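QUALITY CONTROL LOG
STEP: pairwise intake check
CHECKER ROLE: data steward
CRITERIA: each record must contain a sequence immediately followed by its structure tokens, with no blank fields

ENTRY 1 OF 2
RESULT FIELD BELOW
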Amino acid sequence: MVLFWMAVIFFLSSQSTLPSFANTWADWLQDIGGHFIAYAILAALLWWALTGSGVSRPAVWALLIALLYALSDEYHQSFVPGRHPDLLDIATDMAGAAAALLWLSRRFRSR
């Protein structure tokens, strides 16, 4: 599932344009929300895979892998016409990943 989700992110970032709202605020919220949710899902999938493999500190590794993928994704976008790398995207990606991992660690620690 992790590789599938990474492929989905890669496919979306390979598009020169994505559907957007005419309203600037709605478009901005869609962009921020999309990054946040995409990387929250990626981090959760990474955590799940790493937890099942017996790796120690799976949340730390999941966050690191998500960060590396976010960096590579922004680099990849520099080659896509109409797209450009953006530090705000990386920050939003990491916020989504961290939020998911925080929720997962609290959810499964209480059990």
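ENTRY 2 OF 2
RESULT FIELD BELOW
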Amino acid sequence: MKGTVWKRGETWTYQFPVTRGGRRRQISKGGFCTKRECQDALTEALSGYATRGYSEPSKATLAEFMRDDWLPRRRAQVRPTTWESYRDSLEGRVLPHLGDVLLRDLTPKMMAELYQHLLSAPGRDSHRGQLSKRTVAYTARVLRAALADAVRQGAIPRNPADAVDAPKPDNVEMRYWTPEQARSFLESVVDDRMEAAWRLLLATGLRRGEALGLKWSDMDFDLGRVCVRRTLVAVGYRVEWSTPKTKRSNRSVDLDDGTVAALRRHRARQLQERMAWGEVWEQGDLVFTREDGSPMHPQSLSTAFKRAVKSSGLPSIRLHDLRHSSAVMALATGIPTKVVSERLGHSSTAITTDIYQHVTETMQREAADRIGAVLDGVSG
């Protein structure tokens, strides 16, 4: 069986014959940006027909496939926050432009035009008022994964997103505080209601949701240890309980004496709030709550941190950057990468090394100098 490719306007189209029910018909698909892409697609289509036989392409639109098939199936397979990000990417960025297109009619050219449109579309992701490359790249990954499922289901013969280079996200410079800045911040928030939260995040590198998911029963003040068992996440305007991000995120983290002392002060303050609110206090065992004892929305914690930073006069960083600050301080003081990785709850030390490469490279240089000093008999 052979097929043909030809140029139609500015794009390329392929065609090949199939026989079904004793009748011969032509299968064609166009919209390919280059002859090579078109030829590769034809080869793949012919291969698929040879192994699986011809199947009628899906008559569903992209919106119907996403809303009625892919998103409902994925909901049971991923974390609520991940599913919400999938839905937001598709509903907010992809479907308004391609939702009415039949799944079988999607082309690489349409993918490329979508990415280009998103890169120039208004958004809140950057100071320029446009969607960032990181956001568009994430949207492209979600769309590509969904269409790959459509290929596996036999709804389309080939993934049109495979033939298009998605935007690559810009490298974002990591921001963190020096040890001196971290100490200055803690001194400035001594009377802050969330002082213990800021101290805990700097001392342990816990994620925001992990800190908000802590219960007093997770604390062992005598041993100076906290167990991370759950996380509080935002799904839209709602807060939901979820499991830690990875298997290794379910962990125990040792605490220093200063952090234990801050947590004890926080507990005493919380008991005073509980007595002041009386019967309307929301019963629970959460460490960090709103003043009435109810769970704290993750964004509220970030907003409170932003206000505290502004009052301190220190360089502005995000709440998540306290995690980076904690990791950088630990690595810079010579704590082994494996230990830092375990405290952060990374799934592997490779992730820790990759994220904090600039720190580990400095450590490598220092290690080389120390070993050289030993070999040369130079006293430290």
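INTAKE CHECK: passed for both entries
DESCRIPTIVE NOTE, ENTRY 2: The chain has three domains: 4-52, 62-163, 179-367.
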